[in-house]
User: Which sequence fits this backbone?
């Protein structure tokens, strides 16, 4: 960790907690269809694309739609989600996130975001940390969802670094698998029993801030 030249961060659950807003938006859609969408169900959506998330929600509700209707419902969900994140500010940064990013920059470490979210740049701006990132690889720049390593390999390329010189910070199993497939050292943010495949598991970035 002391020798890294580049750091790649997932967004949800690592820097901010927008998962709660995704959950509320998907629940709003499920309510329209008349079935319950629980927080436990929402865990299945972590780290996967919007399209795949919709497919999972439809599977849970036993709903069948044609492709045109799927696209329309995905857009409705996203608009609902945008209504929530437009209200975000710096107070929604997870503990230690901004401080750790600043520490990395002071050490000369290059920083990239690697997220499936198509709203990633917008959210970074809302919470006031966009200028701390040298590159943003999001759902508008890649076509393959995690656990495919595309997003992290693209991040390394934009930083001008080799995967072995970087570290990934992730909170989802799919993201851990993507980092491993990319050949990048990976730090899991969350629970050891869920993210045990990571090289290191911590509760949050504030632990690294405290460690200096």
Assistant:
């Amino acid at each position: 960790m002391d020798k890294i030249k580049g750091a790649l961060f997932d967004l949800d659950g690592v820097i901010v907690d927008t998962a709660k807003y995704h959950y509320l938006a998907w629940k709003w859609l499920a309510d329209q269809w008349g079935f319950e969408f629980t927080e436990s169900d929402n865990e299945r959506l972590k780290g996967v694309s919007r399209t795949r998330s919709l497919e999972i929600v439809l599977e849970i509700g036993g709903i069948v739609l044609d492709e045109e209707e799927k696209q329309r419902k995905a857009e409705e969900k996203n608009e609902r989600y945008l209504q929530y994140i437009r209200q975000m500010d710096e107070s929604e940064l997870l503990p230690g996130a901004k401080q750790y990013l600043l520490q990395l920059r002071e050490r000369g470490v290059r920083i990239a975001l690697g997220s499936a979210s198509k709203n990633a740049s917008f959210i970074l701006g809302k919470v006031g940390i966009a200028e701390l990132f040298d590159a943003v690889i999001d759902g508008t720049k890649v076509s393959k969802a995690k656990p495919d390593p595309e997003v992290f390999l693209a991040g390394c390329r934009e930083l001008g670094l080799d995967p072995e010189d970087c570290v990934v910070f992730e909170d989802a199993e799919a993201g851990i698998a993507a980092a491993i497939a990319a050949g990048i050292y990976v730090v899991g943010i969350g629970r050891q029993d869920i993210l045990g495949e990571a090289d290191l598991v911590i509760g949050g970035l504030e632990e690294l801030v405290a460690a200096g």
Q: What stands out?
A: The mean pLDDT is 94. Strands lie at 6-9, 110-114, 135-137, 166-170, 185-189, 200-202. The two ends are 12 Å apart (CA to CA). Residues 29 and 73 are 8 Å apart (CA to CA).
